[in-house]
Amino acid sequence: MERGGGKSAAVVAVVTEPRFTQRYRDYLEREKLLDRQHRVEKMPDGTVALPVLGGALPAQHLQELRNRVAPGSTCTLTHLLDPVPSKKAQGCSPAQRLCLEVSRWVEGQGVPWSAELEADLPRSWQRHGNLLLLSEDCFKAKQWKNLGPELWETVASALGVQRLAKRGRVSPDGTRTPAVTLLLGDDGWVEHVANGIRYEFDITQCMFSFGNITEKLRVASLPCAGQVLVDLYAGIGYFTLPFLVHAGAAFVHACEWNPHAVVALRNNLEINGVVDRCQIHFGDNRKLKLSDIADRVNLGLIPSSEEGWPVACQVLRKDAGGILHIHQNVESFPGKNLQPPGSSEMEKERWPYPQQIMTNHGGNGATRDSRRNVLSTATKPEWHRWAQFAETRIATLLQQVHGKPWKTQILHIQPVKSYAPHVDHVVLDLECRPCPLVG
């Protein structure tokens, strides 16, 4: 999320001879391509570089500059690796610059500028290359609706991008489709690079959370060499790719039912060079035919992945078991008296064989002290209670699926991010092993 200034990233600039500079500037301003937030720079060979908006200058504009605007001019593109902010840009933050330029434009349309309109401007946003994603809580006043598409061109110009989109609420359709509207531009395809992994996706059709970066890094560091994984909610490859690219997984079965995410996932596997080590299972993972195959299962769905728990138990290896990585949004409201798992009548009905459930809080080589250390990383008691509920429920499911008792052990509870006030996104690493036969 972007909120203010900071060091400028490299920008694209069109290069020509000094005598053609003014013609180029006039044309780029007229076409709304001139980047007014960075200075025109003189190059070592005496030519002049004019910064432009976006990641490249379309070929038709280069042809127009060469053939009509300034025949005989050099007209090449370069990247300014350390662009110098213009005097105008140095004097104010991006939010202040946005307010200044939008207010001037609005008043030029004969609409009085007001405190209501100023309060309705965005204060933060997400930048995806030359596309800016605005939050849902801006540009809601009715006055904006009558100003037309030039409003979005003004916003994009002020913030140094070529495409603009606005986020809405995530659709409750089960496919986690974001309600994103493209305000300016031809498409919503963007690229994001994290930890050396390239993710390409259509931002109007697929979710992407910057807040999950800590969990992606943690997944990338797990010892998965030679292991087979099942990613029950793969999306565009948020965790599938770190498992394959960095953690060294031998193979991943990636499940996803959003067709737009599947297109992006297939592309991302290809561009990251791991397509031969992954099979995509398109459709409802509750109908997944796989079983007895996984060393690890990733359940990266929030607010809860509980509907996928039976399938996770089904795909674990019967002979050796494995580890489940279970995501969950856990509430921790102050003063709320939470009952321990299994204490309510409803929960007792969900666990029909509690006397046969085996949980291992100190086995598998773990001492009581190490068990205490594992839980000490989860500083909120609500996280402990939910983890214990999940452990007990998984133990029941494992016995039902495989017909014999299993040992379960909470290895780790990892906070990912604050999802909302008093709601935390956490991940439970749960080890599940079949009990040895006796006699």
Number of distinct beta strands: 17
What is the number of helical segments per DSSP (H or I, 4+ residues)? 13
The average pLDDT score comes to 84
What's the alpha carbon Rg, rounded to whole Å? 27 Å
N-to-C SSE series? Answer: EHEEHEHHHEEHEEEEHEHEHEEHEHHHEE
Could you please describe the fold and organization of this structure?
The chain is an alpha/beta fold. 29% of the residues lie in helices and 23% in strands. The strands form four sheets. Strands 13-12-11-14-15-17-16 form a seven-stranded mixed β-sheet, sandwiched between helices. A four-stranded antiparallel β-sheet has the order 2-3-1-4, covered by helices on one side. A four-stranded mixed β-sheet has the order 5-6-7-8, covered by helices on one side. Helix 6 (150-159) links the parallel strand 6 and strand 7 (163-167). It is elongated, with a radius of gyration of 27 Å. Residues 3-8 and 337-378 have low confidence and may be disordered.
Give the key terms.
23% strand; 439 residues; alpha/beta; seven-stranded mixed sheet; disordered N terminus
In short:
Helix content is 29%, strand content 23%. It has 13 helices and 17 strands.
Q: What is the strand and helix layout of this fold?
A:
Blueprint: E1 11-16, H1 21-30, E2 41-42, E3 48-51, H2 59-69, E4 76-80, H3 87-90, H4 94-108, H5 115-119, E5 125-128, E6 131-134, H6 150-159, E7 163-167, E8 180-184, E9 189-194, E10 197-202, H7 213-220, E11 228-231, H8 240-245, E12 251-256, H9 259-271, E13 278-282, E14 296-299, H10 309-315, E15 322-331, H11 345-350, H12 368-376, H13 381-402, E16 406-420, E17 423-434
Parallel strand pairs: 6-7, 11-12, 11-14, 12-13, 14-15
Antiparallel strand pairs: 1-3, 1-4, 2-3, 5-6, 7-8, 9-10, 15-17, 16-17
Helix pairs in contact: 4-6, 10-13
